[in-house]
C-alpha cells in the first residue's frame, strides 16, 4: 500500500513521551488514529534526561510494531532539537497533580517547562505548526508557551478541553438513557479546572433540545447545579480518588480527538461541534489572548469559535467566574516572570 508516497511525513513532537499519557498515545498516533490512515508520521519524542532510558525502550517497541505509517522515531532531551521542523506539537510533559491539589497548584512547578518549549517552538517549528497543550494547568501553560513564541501566529496555540467535553456527553447520556453518539452541541466554557462551565444549553439529543428531554425526567436547574456540573467539573479529581492517579487513557483519547478534529479535513468522527481552549479574540467579551474554552467547529487545521450563542443568566455567570480564574492564573504567572513578551 502506498501512503501518499510523494507527501513528506508529518513531524509530530510529543513531550513527556515516557510518561503515562505518552505511552497511551504513541502507539495510536503511529497507527493513524490521530492524523488519519493516509498520513505518514515522524515522531520526535522529548523527555528529561532521567527518562531517556525508558523512552529508548518505548522507541524499540514502536519499531517492533512495523507500522505502515511510521517513518521514524527520534528521541531528545533538548527541546530545540525536538521541535525542529515540528508540524504537530503535543505538549504533555509536566507533573500531574495528586489527591487534594487543584491543577493551578502546579503552575509554579510546570510553568517553566512551557517557557522553554515556547522558545524552542519559535526557533525551529515548521511554518504550519499546530500546538496542543495537555500538561496542567493546560490553559495557562498554553498561554505561557504562546507568549514565548511571538513568530508563530497566536491562534496556533490551543489547550485540551475535549476530555471535559467527552465527560459531559457521557454524563448526559447516562442521565437520559441514550447513547453518546446521539448527543450534539455540548460545550465546555472557560478553564480546564473545577470552575469550568459544561453547558447543555445548546445540546441536542437525537435532534431534540437536551434541556427539554431532561425536564421530562424532572431533571432541571437543581440537577444541573448540584449533580451534572460538579460531576463533570470535578471528574479529574474523582478519577484521581478512585484510580489513585490522574486520568490517562481518557486523556490520551481526548488529545488524539482534539488534534484529529482540528487538523484533518476528514476527521474520524465527521464534522461536529467540539470544545477547545483557544486564544480569545474577544468572543463573548473574553479579554483578548486568554486561552479559554469555547464551542468550536474545526477541520483542515483551522477552527472557528461558534459565535452568537445565547447563554442563560446562570450560564453567563458560571462562564464569567471561570474566565476570572483564567485572568488570575495569568496574573500569577506574570508575577512569577513566566510570560514572554509576544
Ligand atoms: P506522567 O508523570 O506519567 O508523565 C509526565 C512525563 O513528563 C514524565 O515522563 C516526565 O519525565 C516528563 N517531563 C517532565 N518535565 C519534562 C520536560 N521539561 N520536557 C519533557 N518531558 C518532561 O504524567 P501523565 O499522567 O502523563 O500526565 C502528564 C500531564 O498531563 C500532567 O500535567 C497532567 O496533569 C496532565 N493531564 C491533562 C489533562 C487534560 O485534560 N488537559 C488530562 C490528564 C492529564
Ligand atoms: C483530568 O481532567 O483528568 C486531568 O486534568 C488530570 C487532573 O489533574 O484532573
From TrEMBL:
HAMAP family: Malate_dehydrog_2. It comes from Rothia amarae. The active site is at residue 192. Its EC number is 1.1.1.37. InterPro entries: L-lactate/malate_DH, Lactate/malate_DH_C, Lactate/malate_DH_N, Lactate_DH/Glyco_Ohase_4_C, Malate_DH_AS, Malate_DH_type2, NAD(P)-bd_dom_sf. This is Malate dehydrogenase. It comes from the Bacteria. GO terms for molecular function: L-malate dehydrogenase (NAD+) activity. Pfam families: Ldh_1_C, Ldh_1_N. Belongs to the LDH/MDH superfamily. MDH type 2 family.
